[in-house]
Amino acid sequence: MFWLIGLLANRTEAALVIEVDFSGDSQYQSVFESAASTWQSLLVGYQDGFVVSRSFGSSAMLNSQLTTVSINASVVPIDMAGGILGQAGYTAFAFDQSGFKLATNGTMEFDSADFVSLTAAQREALVLHEMAHVLGFGTLWTDNGVYLNESGEFTGANATAAWQSEFGQNGTPDVELAGGPGTANGHWNEFDNGAGLTGITDGLGRDMTFELMTGWLNVGPEDPFISELTLASFRDIGFTTANATAVPEPGTGGVLVAGLAVGMGWRRRRSLAEK
C-alpha cells in the first residue's frame, strides 16, 4: 500500500514540515511519523530559508520561504541480510539568500532483507538516522563549507563549540574516515568500525560510540542518543534548533532512541552519494 505522511507542525513552534511518501506495508507507517515528529521538534526552522534558486526537481518555490522537505521512502533489496540496513540522501535542493544549500527533496531506501526482521525500536533508530542524512547531515557538509572531504574534521563553529563543551574535547569534531563510501566522511567518528568505545563521553557518561549519527548502530548500557553536537552541526548548515535537552526522556539529559536489542552493532549504514 502507499502512504502519504505529512506532519504539519504548529508554525508558532516549528517552521519545518517533513512529508514522507512511503511505499510499503502499513504497519511501518508509524515509524516514519515518529521520526519526522522527532526531527521537527529538534530542527525548528531555518536561519534564513528564503529561496533564491533551486535545482531541477526541487519542490521549493522561488522567492518564498522554505518550509517543507519531501521524502520518498521504500523498502527494497540493497544487499544480503546483515549488510547495509539503509541508505538515504537528498535528491533536490535550494539556495537561500544567505547562501545555505538546503535539501528540499530526498529518498530513503531500506534493505528488505534486514528491515522486516528488525524490532519496532530498531526500525525507529534506523529511520531517524537516515532521515537526518536526507536533511543534510553528512550529505550537505561540504557544500555548506563546514567539511573538507577526507580531512576527518568538521569545522562548523557551532558544532566545534558543542564538541568542546558537551564532550570536553579540544579542536574540531572528528569525522569518520573508515567504512568506505557512504560511511566515511558523513558520520561522527568511531573506533574499529564501531567495535569499541571511543573514550569520549558527555556529561552523563555516554560514550560517543552510542550517538545516533555515528556510522555504526551500536548497543550497550546506553541507548542511542541525539547529542547537542549533532544539533549544532545542523545549525552550521542553516537550521535553527531546539536543544537536545528540550525533549528528554525521563531522567535523562538528552534525546534517546530507546530499546535497541543486541545484534545491531555489526551492521553498517550508509548514505546515498550526493546528487
From TrEMBL:
Please give the GO cellular component terms listed in this UniProt entry.
membrane
- Please give the superkingdom of this protein's source: Bacteria
The cofactors required by this protein are: Zn(2+)
Q: Which InterPro entries match?
A: Ice-binding_C (IPR013424), Peptidase_M8 (IPR001577)
A single MF term (Gene Ontology): metalloendopeptidase activity
The signal peptide stretch is none
Keyword annotations of the record:
Hydrolase, Metal-binding, Metalloprotease, Protease, Zinc
Does the keyword field hold Hydrolase?
yes
Q: Which residues form the Ice-binding protein C-terminal domain?
A: 246-269
The record ties this protein, via Gene3D superfamilies, to: Leishmanolysin , domain 2
* Keyword Transferase part of the UniProt annotation: no
GO biological process terms, alphabetically, are:
cell adhesion; proteolysis
- Its protein name is Zinc metalloendopeptidase
- Species source reads Rhodopirellula baltica WH47
